[in-house]
Amino acid sequence: xxxxxxxxxxxxxxxxxxxxxxxxxxxxxxxxxxxxxxxxxxxxxxxxxxxxxxxxxxxxxxxxxxxxxxxxxxxxxxxxxxxxxxxxxxxxxxxxxxxxxxxxxxxxxxxxxxxxxxxxxxxxxxxxxxxxxxxxxxxxxxxxxxxxxxxxxxxxxxxxxxxxxxxxxxxxxxxxxxxxxxxxxxxxxxxxxxxxxxxxxxxxxxxxxxxxxxxxxxxxxxxxxxxxxxxxxxxxxxxxxxxxxxxxxxxxxxxxxxxxxxxxxxxxxxxxxxxxxxxxxxxxxxxxxxxxxxxxxxxxxxxxxxxxxxxxxxxxxxxxxxxxxxxxxxxxxxxxxxxxxxxxxxxxxxxxxxxxxxxxxxxxxxxxxxxxxxxxxxxxxxxxxxxxxxxxxxxxxxxxxxxxxxxxxxxxxxxxxxxxxxxxxxxxxxxxxxxxxxxxxxxxxxxxxxxxxxxxxxxxxxxxxxxxxxxxxxxxxxxxxxxxxxxxxxxxxxxxxxxxxxxxxxxxxxxxxxxxxxxxxxxxxxxxxxxxxxxxxxxxxxxxxxxxxxxxxxxxxxxxxxxxxxxxxxxxxxxxxxxxxxxxxxxxxxxxxxxxxxxxxxxxxxxxxxxxxxxxxxxxxxxxxxxxxxxxxxxxxxxxxxxxxxxxxxxxxxxxxxxxxxxxxxxxxxxxxxxxxxxxxxxxxxxxxxxxxxxxxxxxxxxxxxxxxxxxxxxxxxxxxxxxxxxxxx
Length: 730
Fold this sequence. Notes:
The chain is built from 29 helices and no strands. By secondary structure, it is mainly alpha-helical. The chain is extended. The N and C termini lie far apart (124 Å). Residues 1-45, 431-460 and 719-730 have low confidence and may be disordered.
C-alpha cells in the first residue's frame, strides 16, 4: 500500500457514524382501561373506547415504522463502516470504494419508512431523528443535493434539537463534496467554534474535515494545525492513529522530519489495528532517507522482513528497500531489488511500480529506450488499479512510437539505397543500348549499301529502315519510363526519410523531453535537406528549444529568426519569425492544390460523388508533387468503393496511388484493400477454372462412357439366324 494513497479519509471511515439513540418514549397506555372499554357492553363508553383503541393502533404502527427505519439505517451504516475498515486494512486504497449493495438497499428502505414518519406523524418527537437519518442515508449514497435539503430542514424546523449541531456538521460535509467550498469552509468553521466547548466529537470532526481540505490543496501548514486540533478533541484510538499519521505526512511535506518522525511514532504506539501500525512504522523508517540515514532506514526495513506478522507486506518492504538503495545511489543493487519485486510479487501494486521505476531508470540514466519501452509496457498491464498505470501507459505509447519511427527509418533507408542502386543500373544500361540503336539507324540511313540495292534488284526483300527505328524508339521509351518511375520512388522515399527524422526530433522535444537529441535531429534535417518542406519547421523548432529550454540570448534567437525569414520567406514559420522580431506579416497565396481539394470535399459533402472524384483526380494530374495528391487519390478511390460501389474503379485508383506514392500513409491504407480485392478476384477465377475443368471432365467421362458402350456392343456375338439348318435330333 503506497503511502501517497494512505491518505486515510477519516470522514469516510469513522466520522459518518453517530448512533441514533432514540429517547425512550414510553407509551403510557393503560391497557386495563382499554380492555375494559373495548370489551364493555355499555353503549355510553363505546365512542371513547373506539378513540382509545385507534390511538393505541396508531402508536403501535408509528413505533413499528420508526423502529424499523432506525434498524435498517443502523444495519446499513454498520455494513458501510465495516466495509471501509476492511478496505483500509487490506490496503485496497487504489480502488474506488463503493458501499455494499445490501447497505444501499437498507438505506433506501430506511428513507422510505422515515418518509412515512414525516408524512403521517409530523407532530411526533421522532421527526428530527427521521430527518437526520434520511439526510445521512442520502449522503452515504452520494446524493448530496437531497442530503443538504434534509439537513437544512432539520436546522430550520428544530433549531433547539440535540441533533442540530450534528446536522450542521453534515451540512458542511455536503457543501464540501459538492465543491461549494466557500460555503463549506464557513459552515465547518462555524460548527467548530460553537461546539469546541460543548461537544468534542462534533468539533473534532469539523476540524478534521477542514484539515482534509487543506491537505488536498497542498496547504500543509493549515492542514497540520487542524489535524492537531482534531487529535486533541477526539478520543477513539483508531481515529487518533490516523490523525497522527496525517500529521506526520504534513510535517514530511514541510521538511520538518523530526516532527514527522514523532507523529509516526505516536501513531504506531496507540494503533489498535496492525495495518495502521505497520504503515506508521514504515513511514518512520522511510523518513530516515530524508536525513540521508540510509543504513538506519535499511536496517529498520530488513528488521521488518524478519517479523512474520509482516508476511503479507513483504512486497511493500522489498519495494521500499529498493527505493532507499536507488536514493542512496546504489543503482546496481536497486535494479536487482526492483527486478526481484516484479518477479516475486507479480500482479501487485509494488510490481507495477517496480517496472515503472525501472523504465524511468533505463530512459533517463541508461538512455536505453528499447528496455524502457518494454518495462513501461509491463508496468501498464501489471496491476490495472495501480496509481501509475496511466503514466505508464503514456510512456509506453511514447516509446512504442519511437520504436516504430526507428524501424520506419531503417526500412526507408534500405529501400532508398536499393532504389538508388536500381536507378544506377538503369542509367548504365541506357548509356549503351540507345547508342547502339542510333548507330544502326545511322548506318542504314547514311551509308549506301550497294549489296542491298543489288539484292533488291534481284527480288530479295528490302530491309525497312522505319521498322528498325520504331523498335529502337520503343526500347528507349520503356527505359525512360522506368527511369522516371524510379526517380518518383526515390523522391517519395527521401520525403519519408526526412519526415521520419523530423518526427523523431519532435518526439524527443515534446514527449521524451530530451532537447539535445531533438536539436540533433532538427539540425540534421536543416543541414542535410535544406530544400525540403520540413526544413523551415525544423529550424523554427530549433529556435523554440533555444528560447524555452536553452535560454539563449536574444541576439542568437534573432539571428535564427532572420535565417528563417531569409531562407524560407514564404513558409508560415517565416511569418512566426517576423512576429518575433517585430516585422510585418506577409500574407501568402493559398495553395492551389488545397483549393481544389476543398472544392472536391464540398462536392462530396453535397453527395455529388462523380464530380468530386473528377476533382480529386485533377489534383493528382495538375499537382503531382503536392502533399494533397496522395490524399486526393485515396479519397477518389474511397468514394468509388463506398459511395458509388464501383470496386473495379476503386481498385484501379488505389493501384495508381500505390504505384505513384508507394510510401505514403494513404498507400499503406490502400494496400490491404487491393490485396483483398486481388485475392477475391483470384478466388473467383479459380472457382471458374475449377468449374470449367469439372465440366470438361464430366464431358470427357460421358464421351468415354459412350465409346466404351459402343465398343461393347461391337464385340457382342451375333444373334442366331432363324433360317439356319436345324440340328439333328438323336
